[in-house]
UniProtKB/TrEMBL annotation:
Protein family per UniProt: Belongs to the UPF0702 family.
Domain of life from the UniProt record: Bacteria
A single GO cellular-component term on record: plasma membrane
Subcellular location: Cell membrane
Membrane-related topology note: Multi-pass membrane protein
Transmembrane is among the record's keywords: yes
One Pfam family here: DUF421
Organism, scientific name: Alkalicoccus saliphilus
Record field: transmembrane: 12-29, 41-62, 68-91
Major localization class: membrane
Name of the molecule in the record: DUF421 domain-containing protein
Amino acid sequence: MFFNDWEGIWHILVTAVLLYPLLIIMLRISGKRTLSKMNMFDFIITIALGSMVSAIVMDGAIPLAEGLAGLAALIVLQFAVTWSSVHFSFVNKSVKGEPQLLYHNGRFIEKAMKKERIKKDEIMQAVRTTGKSSFASVQAVVLETDGSLSVMEKESSEGESTIPAE
């Protein structure tokens, strides 16, 4: 079906025009983290926000005021959890997880690779992506909490290591 009635179109247009600036304000209040490189928790919240916006604008199943309350609740909850994860390490570990060392000093850590369901080919691809043609200058490869693979060169200076423990 291509068209139901003008009332539906007006509902979508008016709701979108009202919701858009309010959503921007809410996201600005919630902080940059809401739109940053995401871990699983942030990704799920983003999908939930998108789903709610869709239900408000397209379906009309949720009236605008109730939809805004739902969006605000999700954003406040996300803020509370991220604030707690910064201040309490047990919350951080449960929400984000920890980086996982997959390759270190010339050897692949098979147990960690199996646990994280990462194949050797994926690690090799990450190394190639950094412009390296071999593992000669690679000290470690880490699966980060956002799902990306970080490739670290062999250390040439002193300082605190960013490589997680095995």
